[in-house]
Amino acid sequence: MSEQATNQWTLQRLLEWTTTHFNEAGSDSSRLDAEVLLAEALQCQRIELYTRFAEVPPAEPLQKFRDWVKRRAAGEPVAYLVGHKEFYSLKFKVTSATLIPRPETEHLIVAALEVCKGYEKPIRIIDVGTGSGCIAVTMATQLDKDYVIAATDISLDALAVARENAEAHEVDSRIRFYEGDLLDALPEGSKPVHLIVSNPPYIGRCEVDTVEATVKDFEPDAALFAGEQGTEIIERLIPQAEKMLLPGGHLIFEASDSTMDRCVELVNQSALEFVEVINDYAGLKRILVAKQKA
Question: For the segment 2-11, what is each residue's pLDDT rounded down to a tens digit?
């Protein structure tokens, strides 16, 4: 894309060129990536691009777009470039300190909201390893005000992002944030809760070669990898949850298809009762639901 050529290129030609460029770089979402970056550079909705195909963009947004194209072609995730990601139809700020929310985690939200229907109010919930806050904030927007949510994370930088997202969605008064490792982050003497949800690190070092470069090279290592096998953090979370759940309360967490059978074993070896495994959109085992015996 030479300087002379790009100054003459319309939005349509820019999208076509960039889509081809991303395809050659190995992206599996080339057209979408190109549209998201161009719309963000122009500060417009993606759908508007199609009504402006003949337009030649101004120099400043064009330069921003070109810079982003270079970085995206080098593997940097689109969400980090534009600074946000949609999750459960909500917009979440993301930075290099947080994982990028993924559609698979929406299954956790659905399962969590379903079990909340059976609890007596007020409902107490803990989101362990909140990251961007997408789980805690989404649940806060979906539930009525008769509940309390605590969100923990070992990363202060991630907690800062989560707080911003809570403020952006006007639920910051309903969520308490705590820094620390898993449930140890909670204040001493915290009351037992109805529900514990978590999207913990669950990739094993033994699987590192199977992880896409755009993920392992850019997303936070501590939020991805849990140890050699991938279940090490879940192995610590389950016994902590046993002590923190009310009778009939639930633990719902995300894991990988490759380790889910082991996660089921861990639950069956605990005082918790296994309820179900929920598959994601690709048919892979993704969400485990367990229950504290009444």
Answer: 444 445 789 9
